[in-house]
Amino acid sequence: xxxxxxxxxxxxxxxxxxxxxxxxxxxxxxxxxxxxxxxxxxxxxxxxxxxxxxxxxxxxxxxxxxxxxxxxxxxxxxxxxxxxxxxxxxxxxxxxxxxxxxxxxxxxxxxxxxxxxxxxxxxxxxxxxxxxxxxxxxxxxxxxxxxxxxxxxxxxxxxxxxxxxxxxxxxxxxxxxxxxxxxxxxxxxxxxxxxxxxxxxxxxxxxxxxxxxxxxxxxxxxxxxxxxxxxxxxxxxxxxxxxxxxxxxxxxxxxx
Length: 256
Ligand SMILES: Nc1ncnc2c1ncn2[C@@H]1O[C@H](COP(=O)(O)OP(=O)(O)O)[C@@H](O)[C@H]1O
Ligand SMILES: [Mg+2]
Hints:
Layout: E1 9-18, E2 21-31, E3 36-41, H1 47-54, E4 62-67, E5 70-71, H2 77-82, E6 85-88, H3 100-104, H4 109-116, H5 120-138, H6 154-168, E7 172-176, H7 184-199, E8 204-207, H8 211-217, E9 220-225, E10 228-233, H9 240-248, H10 250-255
Parallel strand pairs: 3-8, 3-9, 6-7, 7-8
Antiparallel strand pairs: 1-2, 1-4, 4-5, 9-10
């Protein structure tokens, strides 16, 4: 199979139990280069749990995962990051008591250490400069990268998390409701960023409740219902109403 069509990521039979709660009940999924894949579903359907598994944050109960054609067992989020899998978490994992620029390098201390050596202060300057350039490139306005993340609004924090994933995700970007706290213009910017990531050939898995946005941005929409992926839809062909029918389970009932 050529590089273009080989899935970047494949998962098979992934389950996750929390005591009696079956958050995932056998998920199969393939993500190919350059695709923007929407993941929708009602609250509690298992979307964040699935992203947790794909990002190394959650250990699945069962199932296997293939990354670039090789079996992989993700041991931690930093393991996933080292493979080029970058995640925007729903609960906004920014460290509030450190500057914005340091948040952009969070979890990459290794790289910082490598460059720093005897020239520690130079390295810091360089990271600040690069953080400024990255944020400028995203055109998301946040003021000075030297201010603490705690000074930012929810939307600005979300924008930083998106900028981080976009600049570091070299193989796969996972976004769990990245636009939930954003204003209209910022949502639009994030939409453009997602498009630019996919153009680089890096696929994006996008969780969003904004179905018009999902229809506009995604090549494919997966619907989760009670821990399973129940539909794989072409958003250009299906209406919002049809997608909602799958989300609520009504479409499943009709099939029975
Ligand atoms: N850490 C956890 N401990 C116990 N139950 C959890 C945990 N995380 C998620 N769940 C449960 O798993 C199910 C799926 O949750 P989640 O993946 O967050 O859904 P979604 O993101 O689609 O809203 C829910 O019933 C939720 O309560
Ligand atoms: Mg969720």
